[in-house]
Amino acid sequence: MNAHSRIPVSRGNKNERGAALTMVIVIGAVLMMLIATSTAFSLSSLRKSSTDADWNGAMAAVYAGVEDYKSKLSNDNAYVKYGNKLAPFSVGSDLQLPTGVMTNPAFGLGTAGTWATVSGSNGTASYRYEVDNSKYSASGILRLRSTGRVNDSIRTLVVNVKQQGFIDYLYFTDYEIVDPAQQQNSNCVVTHAWEQNDNEHKNYCTEIQFAPGDVINGPMHSNDTLLICGTRFKGQVTTSNNKLPIYRKASNSGCTPTFEVPGSPEFSTSIGMPATNSEMRSETRTDLPDIVTRPGCLYTGPTVITFLNGGLMNVKSPFTVKTRIAGAPATSGTTPAECGVPGTSAGSLGSSGGATIAVIEQNLIYVQNVPGLSDDPNYTAPTSSPTGFTCTTATGKKGWSFGGNQFPLADEIIPWAEPAHYGCRNGDAYIKGKLGGQVSVAAENYVYVTGDLTYSDETADMLGIVGQNAVWVWNPLICEEYYSNNGNGAKNGTCKENKREFSLPKNRTISGAILSVAHTFMVQNYDLEDSRGKLTVKGAISQKFRGTVATTSGSGYVKDYNYDPRFRFMAPPKFLSPVSTTYGISELVEVSAAFKPNGVAN
Asked: Each residue of 1-33: b (16+ CB within 10 Å) or e?
């Protein structure tokens, strides 16, 4: 083949060449679409990943806001008064903005308003919160709406913030020993069992054990070491005993307890008891408008309160002159009709029939001792008594009578107690009946539960019972026959031990949150041979010292204690808090975002 030879090539016709060109263009277009789609998908994935991170980060910012507010409350209980009253969520709340060094950027509103920066986020995450304190004084509940922001992602939660305290437990004790003031044991060294060796504790103090047949149907805590014989614990059990064994089993046979919650009992830090309930009396003052926005009712001296149907209560309080006060010590007072009218006219607090009034809804009743200062508006001279009131001072028969009530009963054996029972000038509250409403009753001295104490509506009604000293389950004994001091059979000698009988029907039911600040919740005459049936408590019991309600021989009451689950979310009105108050979330729900990214309210 020479140099000029050519390799023949088939060029095809015109139609074939057009079809080939078209195919090339189509394939190129498909490739471009694939590349564009791939690129768009990659960019979309990047945007989605970024959005997810912002969305989750916004919720983290929400929780940062909640924790910030809880921290401020724990450091300063008065922080409940701070917030932005212009916030839509805060309508009806009594709030003020903190100023100076306390200025809080989380209370900002609008586009020009501030946000608080989440620590460690380099300014990319922030939060605001709004406060509703309108129900705080009544139920102890604060509502908080917290909003978190990361770039254009906004999320909002509404939470209920509640003080954590005694009513978180069905049963709480500081010490698992008999109240030294009720056992006449001057040698008892008041310490927790785990603070000294067992021999020291047994030698000086009388311990109380949880007995077979007892059922504790709810969470419980003791700052002390638990002594247990049998008993069924249906809720979480915690103790501040930091030594092993974490509880002590009684030496009796068949004393193995049942713990239904796995891990019980377990260690938990101690809860501090306040020294006094006197701050509750401050809730009846009219000269503290910034702190006490809705004063309660103050009664003086022995006061009998009977809850009636229809949300009413009957109050007999003959020593009472003023039902609200000003000053500490008090120098003046008022007599609002909602607390009952003092005096002796029919329907008044000092009349034989007492005053029948509406239950002081979502508020507090405080019963104080008759004041010893003559400048106090409720002062009554020691040598005087109200009209119709009889004060008995004879040794062994000290007590009082008024308006058909008599303490002690005729021929009642007065059990030993310190302070003594039935002081005729003491701030003692005697309560019973069926409550319709929400109220707390506190006493400077004793509270006596003189009959069943129940609710008209167990879903709506709520009672707090707070004694500075003991809260007693009134359980009087009548002496049918005495040894005579003078030989003529007169009832002025010593009662024969085998001639005593109980004067009240068996069984007792008490609904409410019970707290004895300095002493105990206890049954009078628990140690006699007669069985009193069942003591049913529906609520919560808190006390400094363990209260005795029965003996192992069968006298007294068998416990049937059941927790009121509402106490996880709310408290009786103006109920007393521990020394160190912490706050927890009792309810939480996510809602629509409260703000747009630019700060404008939705």
From this structure: eeeeeeeeeeeeeeeeeeeeeeeeeeeeeeeee
